[in-house]
Write a structure and sequence with these properties.
The protein is built from no helices and nine strands. It is mainly beta. A seven-stranded antiparallel sheet has the order 1-2-3-4-7-8-9, with no helix packed on it. A two-stranded antiparallel sheet has the order 5-6. It is elongated, with a radius of gyration of 17 Å. It starts with a strand and ends with a strand. The relative contact order is 0.17.
Protein backbone atom coordinates (compact mmCIF):
# COMPACT_ATOMS: atom_id res chain seq x y z
CA UNK A 1 0.00 0.00 0.00
CA UNK A 2 1.05 3.55 -0.51
CA UNK A 3 -0.29 7.11 -0.33
CA UNK A 4 0.99 10.35 -1.81
CA UNK A 5 -0.46 13.76 -1.11
CA UNK A 6 -0.08 17.48 -1.53
CA UNK A 7 -1.31 20.32 0.68
CA UNK A 8 -1.38 24.00 -0.23
CA UNK A 9 -2.26 26.73 2.25
CA UNK A 10 -4.19 29.81 1.11
CA UNK A 11 -5.07 31.54 4.39
CA UNK A 12 -7.49 30.63 5.90
CA UNK A 13 -8.04 27.58 3.62
CA UNK A 14 -5.79 24.54 3.16
CA UNK A 15 -6.36 22.59 -0.06
CA UNK A 16 -5.28 18.95 -0.40
CA UNK A 17 -4.96 16.31 -3.10
CA UNK A 18 -4.18 12.68 -2.16
CA UNK A 19 -3.89 9.37 -3.99
CA UNK A 20 -3.78 6.02 -2.18
CA UNK A 21 -3.61 2.38 -3.28
CA UNK A 22 -3.92 -0.86 -1.30
CA UNK A 23 -3.51 -4.25 -2.98
CA UNK A 24 -6.27 -6.80 -3.36
CA UNK A 25 -6.51 -10.56 -3.93
CA UNK A 26 -7.10 -11.89 -7.44
CA UNK A 27 -8.83 -14.94 -5.97
CA UNK A 28 -10.28 -14.78 -2.45
CA UNK A 29 -10.33 -18.61 -2.28
CA UNK A 30 -6.56 -18.87 -2.88
CA UNK A 31 -4.50 -19.79 0.22
CA UNK A 32 -1.92 -17.09 -0.55
CA UNK A 33 -3.22 -13.81 0.83
CA UNK A 34 -2.12 -10.91 -1.40
CA UNK A 35 -4.42 -8.43 0.33
CA UNK A 36 -2.81 -5.52 2.16
CA UNK A 37 -4.26 -5.26 5.66
CA UNK A 38 -3.30 -2.56 8.09
CA UNK A 39 -3.92 -2.73 11.82
CA UNK A 40 -7.55 -3.63 12.23
CA UNK A 41 -9.17 -1.36 14.76
CA UNK A 42 -12.53 0.30 15.04
CA UNK A 43 -11.19 3.73 14.12
CA UNK A 44 -11.77 5.88 11.07
CA UNK A 45 -8.81 5.67 8.72
CA UNK A 46 -9.88 7.89 5.81
CA UNK A 47 -13.50 8.02 4.54
CA UNK A 48 -16.34 8.26 7.03
CA UNK A 49 -18.90 6.06 5.26
CA UNK A 50 -17.01 3.69 2.91
CA UNK A 51 -14.12 2.73 5.20
CA UNK A 52 -15.62 3.30 8.65
CA UNK A 53 -19.34 2.49 8.35
CA UNK A 54 -20.02 0.38 5.21
CA UNK A 55 -18.71 -2.90 3.84
CA UNK A 56 -15.61 -2.02 1.82
CA UNK A 57 -14.15 -3.78 -1.25
CA UNK A 58 -13.08 -6.65 1.01
CA UNK A 59 -16.67 -7.36 2.07
CA UNK A 60 -15.89 -6.29 5.66
CA UNK A 61 -16.06 -3.02 7.57
CA UNK A 62 -13.07 -1.00 8.70
CA UNK A 63 -10.37 -2.84 6.73
CA UNK A 64 -8.56 0.33 5.77
CA UNK A 65 -7.08 0.66 2.30
CA UNK A 66 -7.32 -3.09 1.49
CA UNK A 67 -8.35 -3.68 -2.16
CA UNK A 68 -9.01 0.05 -2.54
CA UNK A 69 -7.60 2.99 -4.40
CA UNK A 70 -8.81 6.55 -4.08
CA UNK A 71 -8.26 10.14 -5.10
CA UNK A 72 -9.16 12.73 -2.45
CA UNK A 73 -9.76 16.42 -3.05
CA UNK A 74 -10.05 18.34 0.21
CA UNK A 75 -10.44 21.78 1.72
CA UNK A 76 -10.05 22.73 5.37
CA UNK A 77 -10.72 26.20 6.75
CA UNK A 78 -10.69 28.08 10.03
CA UNK A 79 -13.93 30.02 9.56
CA UNK A 80 -13.44 31.95 12.79
CA UNK A 81 -10.97 31.54 15.66
CA UNK A 82 -12.60 28.45 17.23
CA UNK A 83 -14.67 27.09 14.31
CA UNK A 84 -13.14 24.75 11.71
CA UNK A 85 -14.75 23.20 8.60
CA UNK A 86 -13.27 20.21 6.72
CA UNK A 87 -14.72 19.02 3.37
CA UNK A 88 -13.38 16.06 1.35
CA UNK A 89 -14.44 14.43 -1.92
CA UNK A 90 -13.26 10.85 -2.56
CA UNK A 91 -13.33 8.96 -5.86
CA UNK A 92 -13.14 5.27 -4.90
CA UNK A 93 -12.18 2.21 -6.96
CA UNK A 94 -11.41 -1.40 -6.10
CA UNK A 95 -7.84 -2.51 -6.84
CA UNK A 96 -9.15 -5.88 -8.13
CA UNK A 97 -12.53 -6.90 -9.53
CA UNK A 98 -14.06 -9.59 -7.36
CA UNK A 99 -17.34 -10.66 -5.91
CA UNK A 100 -17.70 -10.23 -2.17
CA UNK A 101 -20.54 -11.22 0.14
CA UNK A 102 -22.24 -8.36 1.96
CA UNK A 103 -24.95 -9.23 4.49
CA UNK A 104 -25.26 -12.70 2.94
CA UNK A 105 -25.69 -11.40 -0.61
CA UNK A 106 -22.90 -11.73 -3.22
CA UNK A 107 -22.05 -8.77 -5.46
CA UNK A 108 -21.71 -9.24 -9.23
CA UNK A 109 -17.96 -8.60 -9.09
CA UNK A 110 -17.77 -7.17 -12.61
CA UNK A 111 -16.90 -3.57 -11.71
CA UNK A 112 -14.09 -1.72 -9.92
CA UNK A 113 -16.26 1.37 -9.39
CA UNK A 114 -16.85 1.65 -5.63
CA UNK A 115 -18.43 5.08 -5.93
CA UNK A 116 -17.91 8.68 -4.89
CA UNK A 117 -18.09 9.97 -1.33
CA UNK A 118 -18.30 13.42 0.17
CA UNK A 119 -17.36 13.85 3.84
CA UNK A 120 -17.61 16.91 6.02
CA UNK A 121 -16.71 17.78 9.59
CA UNK A 122 -17.38 20.93 11.60
CA UNK A 123 -15.54 21.41 14.90
CA UNK A 124 -16.01 24.09 17.51
CA UNK A 125 -13.42 24.57 20.25
CA UNK A 126 -15.44 25.18 23.42
CA UNK A 127 -12.40 25.44 25.67
CA UNK A 128 -8.66 24.70 25.56
CA UNK A 129 -9.08 20.87 25.60
CA UNK A 130 -12.81 20.56 24.85
CA UNK A 131 -14.20 20.35 21.30
CA UNK A 132 -17.69 19.74 19.92
CA UNK A 133 -17.97 18.19 16.43
CA UNK A 134 -20.58 17.25 13.85
CA UNK A 135 -19.51 15.08 10.91
CA UNK A 136 -21.10 13.10 8.15
CA UNK A 137 -20.66 11.54 4.78
CA UNK A 138 -22.62 10.45 1.73
CA UNK A 139 -21.48 7.59 -0.52
CA UNK A 140 -22.91 7.37 -4.02
CA UNK A 141 -22.28 3.66 -4.55
CA UNK A 142 -20.80 2.38 -7.80
CA UNK A 143 -21.31 -0.80 -9.80
CA UNK A 144 -19.05 -2.81 -7.46
CA UNK A 145 -21.93 -3.09 -4.94
CA UNK A 146 -24.63 -4.12 -7.43
CA UNK A 147 -26.23 -7.53 -7.06
CA UNK A 148 -27.30 -9.70 -9.98
CA UNK A 149 -30.84 -8.32 -10.09
CA UNK A 150 -30.71 -5.24 -7.82
CA UNK A 151 -28.73 -2.00 -8.01
CA UNK A 152 -27.14 -0.93 -4.73
CA UNK A 153 -28.48 1.88 -2.56
CA UNK A 154 -26.41 4.91 -1.62
CA UNK A 155 -25.17 5.08 1.97
CA UNK A 156 -24.87 7.96 4.41
CA UNK A 157 -24.08 8.55 8.07
CA UNK A 158 -23.89 11.46 10.49
CA UNK A 159 -22.79 11.81 14.09
CA UNK A 160 -21.88 14.43 16.67
CA UNK A 161 -19.92 14.35 19.88
CA UNK A 162 -17.76 16.07 22.42
CA UNK A 163 -14.04 15.35 22.64
CA UNK A 164 -12.00 16.01 25.76
CA UNK A 165 -8.21 15.82 25.46
CA UNK A 166 -5.95 15.59 28.49
Amino acid sequence: AYMVGLDYKLNPVTLSLDYAYGSGDDNPNDTKNKLFLNTLANTQKYTYVYDFRAAAATGSKNTGIANTQYVKLGAKADVIKDLNVDLNLYILRAAKKRSVTIDGNPTKGDSKNLGTEIDWKVTYKIDKNLTYFVEGGYLWTGGFYDRTTVASDDAYAIRHGIQLKF
